[in-house]
Specification:
The structure is a homodimer.
Chain A (H helix, E strand, L loop, with lengths): L2 H7 L1 H21 L5 H12 L7 H8 L3 H13 L3 E6 L2 E9 L1 H25 L1 H17 L1
Antiparallel strand pairs in A: 1-2
Helix pairs in contact in A: 3-6, 4-5, 6-7
Chain A binds a DNA duplex through helix 5 and strand 2.
DNA sequence: TGAGATAATTGAGTTGCTCAATCAAAGGCA
DNA sequence: TGCCTTTGATTGAGCAACTCAATTATCTCA
């Protein structure tokens, strides 16, 4: 069986398969900190945007998922003592999310782990090649 | 909240997020034929490699999943009348998979749908850019 | 022949998600 | 002011796709 033949004949499957591998890779990386992908996205966002008001609805929109999902993940993060819900004084339905000290530590670790992978990638194919490939792929993903 | 800032600061999250979007895109495409991703991979493989002996263990290895998963998916495909298990005359533990006529039709439809997306992508960023980006990304995914 | 090794299956269990129903607060508007 | 609609978030049931360990069936070879 020549899988390579097949992959050549249907590049889209190749893209999809590759996407899946990246997803798996990331998932495994985050396992060490007992986080799923969305949880990791959330605390990293908080890390970089700690001063701003981060609301669940924005997170859902930005990361292309449902509010329910975000809500579940935030509850999970809260249970782990990584984040804190704070009622928005201007709108008691909404709230702001903030990182707790432990959450900040975890965020740093997670971001570091991903950066390490990125550097490995750069070493493998070159920084410029990686950058331009990413630009192309991202423009496709965003538009669909 | 400036998510863009965040994405710039951690490109790996960007890759992972993009990968996820592609995965979602593919999954939605396959919904019309009531197939999951692995099922689609399997019948497409059979379509391109119909003459050869395709065994579950090879599929699992090639697509980076467990035998259990492949087994489940094959059962599902069989229940839908798309593939057939045929005992390997040289090894009664193993078997060969073959496409049934309905499975062939489905495979053609699925491959066509993916090709259509590919052409859209090519129109968007140019054939050469897509090719080279894919080469880069795939070399990374394969190695990790 | 009998002791592993190997191919595949099975089914229970997990995870990460969606979706609809619900709650609570906000914002008109007569 | 009181009512109606809209909006932000939560909840919990349900689902799809997967893994993992146990099991079955077959093969290999000394």
């Amino acid at each position: 069986m020549r899988i390579e033949t097949f992959l050549k004949q249907s590049p889209m499957f190749c893209i999809a398969l590759t996407a899946r591998r990246f997803d798996t890779l990331t998932t495994h990386l985050l396992e060490a900190d007992d986080l799923n992908f969305l949880e990791a996205l959330i605390i990293s966002t908080l890390f970089f945007e700690s001063s701003a008001a981060v609301k669940p609805s924005q997170l859902a929109e930005t990361f292309g998922t449902t509010r329910g999902n975000v809500s579940h993940c935030i509850s999970s993060l809260e249970a782990k003592g990584l984040v804190q819900r704070k009622i928005d004084p201007e709108d008691a339905r909404a709230y702001h999310l903030t990182l707790k000290p432990q959450g900040r530590k975890t965020a740093i670790r997670v971001i570091g782990a991903l950066d390490k992978v990125q550097r490995e990638f750069e070493n493998k194919v070159g920084k410029d090649a990686l950058q331009s490939a990413l630009r192309v792929i991202r423009s496709l993903a965003g538009s669909t």
